[in-house]
Structure prediction request, 497 residues.
Amino acid sequence: MTFAERMLRIDRRIIFLVIGLCTLIPLLYPVGLPIKISQEVRGVYDHIESLPEGSVFLLSLDFDPASKPELHPQSISLLRHAFKKNLRVIAMTLWVSGTGMADQVVTQVAREMGKESGKDYVFLGWSPGGTAVIINMGQDLYGAFPADYSGKPTKGLPVLQGVANLRDVNYAVSLGAGNPGVEAWYVFGKDKYKFELGGGCTGVMAPGLYPLLRSGQINGLIGGLRGAAEYEILIDQKGKAIAGMDAQSATHLAIIVLVIMCNLFYFSSRNRARQQGGEVA
Amino acid sequence: MIFLRRQVPLLITLITGIVFAAQYYVPHPASEQMLTSVTKWLQIIGGFALVLGVSSLFQVHAVKIRRKEAGWGYSFVLYVSMLGTIAVGFWSNGKEAVDGAMTAFGWIYNFMMVPLQGTMFAILAFFIASAAYRSFRARSREAAVLLIAAVIVMMGRVPLGEYLIPISGDLSQWILNVLNASVRRAILIGVSLGTVALSIKIIFGMERSYLGGGKE
Prediction:
């Protein structure tokens, strides 16, 4: 067996070790490379910036703990921005397994920004029905959520004054890790109830949402940890996303180097096999 | 019985399908009121679907445990954790925290579910890297194009890539905005047209597989 063939059959634990080190070392010794702001992320930021004080901002945290590393920093940044702008925040989730996490993030950021539940923000929690919840909220918000997550009746809450349904929402952002998520909010929400919509998603989902972005169906997209890091820069509050960018840079580079190496070894083995009249696996 | 099992569901599908497809284009208050009522039904049905799903899961795994099929131990773990979580959930009134204090249900959520799901997702990075090394080879022209595009996007999406090759950021954006978006849009339009066709077939009773294949 030649060196190239041996390298093509390398023990996968060595690859795991390389990826592990590429993640760990930058987290321990951050470099802090500059991060360029994309138009997609700026779209969401600019729209929130343009909203007058007291506008209604709906944040749907449609993800579970599996997507926490990417979408949790996005939630924190968006909530900080909305509270800083004194917007009325309505938070909720369409994912039952994400309810506890969503409650924690909303409560934590609200406390940090000195906001009061019921007056400045409300966490509606989760309601069964998936996409039907969006339609129901579009028809009658109080029918979909008669009480908030803590059990207080939603009717009469100061934060919901003048809000009867989704038509009264000035801006909605869905942070989605799958279905129901950003696409469902467009199809069942924005298209019928005519509110402005932005999106946030995991890195692997982002390419799939570009058609919505390019056609203006969503006015901005925060994609993955990179998007979260860009948003942290925009609001000038460094967090976990910026801290994680160096690790992501290193792992991306490691994978690229591995792929290039694998191809070099593959071609070398193939040429050798052709010369000997054989075939490479 | 055939009338109740076949004709009635087909009739309900036909009427509701036509009525609610038309409802979208009728902004009259009565039409909106009808939609409000029906979406409430949908939410209630959604709640029942959850019960149905859980009970079906219980049945499937109970059979596995009873017959001691391969991997029945995992089913047993699932049974114990599910029953335990449901019991603790009822005991904690479905709340993760009460007045800032974490409940037992909150403990299960924060210290079991969150780390377990996080770990499952995190180990993907290791397997993706290993799989990329083993299978991402330029065996054909198409594979080479895919490989080059992937490398550019991977470089362009991280600060180190943009630092080493400044043009990679713009190139990556172009690939995502032009090539990716147009192809995805074409796929979306195709899928949507297929969905419309399938919906029409279901509404008019040409597609009946949703009724199940039981004996008549």
Remarks:
- The radius of gyration of chain B is 26 Å.
- Residues 29-67 of chain B form the longest helix (39 residues).
- The mean pLDDT of chain B is 90.
